[in-house]
Amino acid sequence: MKKTTTLLLLLCVSMATAFAQIVDSKVVENGSSGPYKAIAATEASLPNYVVYRPKDVKAAAKAEGKLPIIVFGNGGCSNTSITHEKVLSEIASRGYVIVAIGPLARTLAPKPTSTESSMLLDAVTWITAQSKDKKSEYYQRVATDKIAAMGQSCGGAQTLYVSSDPRIKTSILFNAGIGNMTMAGASKASLQQLHGPIAYIVGGPSDIAYANAELDYDRIDTVPVALATLTAKGHMGTFDEAFGGSFSQMALAWLDWQLKGKNSRSTVFLDKDLGKFPGWSVKAKRF
């Protein structure tokens, strides 16, 4: 009897290990304001990233269809997304799965370490594998044909660098522009390697990236591009505001249009329908 009980216990432990992916998690702003309460999670097979996602992925996918995917690079190319978590949790709560570089953190480390741009593509590879694994919670619940790359400041340069990858369908650069610099592998040559629509979401002239974002916008001549500017804000935009402030909402307008096919959201960029975006200006071309 004792031997049988031990075998049953080992079997239960084995099953739990196979199916329990999340090994740590936290809730940002009570799960954010969207219809699918979000969590920030560490996955057992991806310890050096945070997955911002609806807590109940199954329910979200049932309501939305397969959930679009975002990979995210942090300001300073650092290994923590804690300074961006309000925006990321808010977007996740609207039916997205975001894989952000850096392990889960509850406080900001005094000296975050630097990361490589290739980590964004590693994140794409991981979530793609999860979508095909019958044991995974993401199995047939994420849309591997609807992947965005997104990043802030130096993470925006990482985003630009990987945006030539054919798996990336669209990109968002927050408070970022390459101009005449070389950063995280990206340079002005990267602008000619874009194959999908790209959006720049920046602060006004007090944003150190503002001039470079304007220059990138002028130089891009092969793909659709939009530049959205919140004039009164600087280099961190509204990342520290409740639910990520209007940076979250501007990003969602773009993502809903580009990845969820909600063409009504295009009016923000194409028709400058900014009634819900006071203080913003937008321009777009090649659409």
TrEMBL record:
Transmembrane segments: none
Pfam families: PETase (PF12740)
Signal peptide (residue range): 1-20
Name of the protein: Alpha/beta hydrolase
One Gene Ontology MF term: hydrolase activity
PET hydrolase/cutinase-like domain segment(s): 64-172
Organism: Hymenobacter citatus
UniProt cross-references to InterPro entries, sorted A to Z: AB_hydrolase_fold, PET_hydrolase/cutinase-like
Highest taxon in the source lineage: Bacteria
SUPFAM superfamilies the UniProt entry points to: alpha/beta-Hydrolases
Source species taxonomy: Bacteria, Pseudomonadati, Bacteroidota, Cytophagia, Cytophagales
Alphabetical keyword list: Hydrolase, Signal
